[in-house]
Amino acid sequence: MLRATASLLGLAQQAGSAAAAAAGASAFQARRAFNYVPLVIESTSRGERAFDIYSRLLRERIICVNGPIDDSTSNVIIAQLLYLESQHPEKPVHMYINSPGGVVTAGLAIYDAMQYIKSPISTLCIGQAASMASLLLAAGAPGERRCLPHSRIMVHQPIGGAQGQASDILIQAKEIERLRDVLIALYERHTHKDKDTIARTLDRDFYMDAPQAADWGIVDEVIQERLDASVITQ
Predict the structure, then answer these.
(1) How far from 168 is each of 157, 161, 165, 173, 175, CA to CA, in Å?
(2) What is the pLDDT of residues 161-171, one digit of tens each?
(3) Inter-residue contact 110 to 74 (CB < 8 Å)
(4) Mean pLDDT, to the nearest integer, of 124-149?
């Protein structure tokens, strides 16, 4: 009887594990369905090879900054920057941006990596570059910062919240003020606008269309059509 009970328990555990695995697989398939990443099939002398589209673009030295910027996104982008520099430090990297921004520290990590590597970086906004993403757009190499005609750029000061004792809230408020000063200094460096103008502009959400972004110094050029292929993939 004890053996039979143990066997039944073992079968139940196996069934539970199988159900959990099936649920996990279904969840994975659901995530893939909602976050679909196309595959590119290439024929080689050894047969066909499949790449996800972002890996294929990386071979052309193209990095895509898509969606919210958080620590995970930041780590992936930094790894790509370091990899491309290790391959050909003298060749440019092309960064395509369509992002609402995100965590300030994660964005600053990407910014620092862009300034750290030797490879020149051209930036191109397709869609929007808001908040931290606007700083990454502005941080491209001089003369190599572009956006498409209907791009939207938005700048503002850091946003945060705090709870706890009054002393804890004060510490967080001082840190937000410090980050605001850091961002003002970086925008000043890349846009060549004076500090007071930048501080006033960042006080509230400030939206710019493509021509305004060029006037403000976030980008150097608004491009109406695709550049020569040799410029994109050189």
Answers:
(1) 21, 11, 5, 9, 11
(2) 778 889 888 99
(3) yes
(4) 98
In this structure, the number of other CB atoms found within 10 A of the CB of residue 157 comes to 21
What values do phi and psi take at 41, rounded to 5?
Answer: -100, 125
pLDDT at 22 over 50: no
Residues involved in catalysis: 131, 156
Query: What integer pLDDT is reported at residue 38 of this predicted model?
Result: 80
Q: CA distances (Å), 42 to each of 59, 62, 64, in order?
A: 13, 18, 21
Report the CATH superfamily, name and number, of domain 56-233.
2-enoyl-CoA Hydratase; Chain A, domain 1 (3.90.226.10)
Provide the 10 A C-beta neighbour count for residue 107. 26
Which amino acid does the sequence have at 53? Answer: I
Position of tokens 């520290």?
105
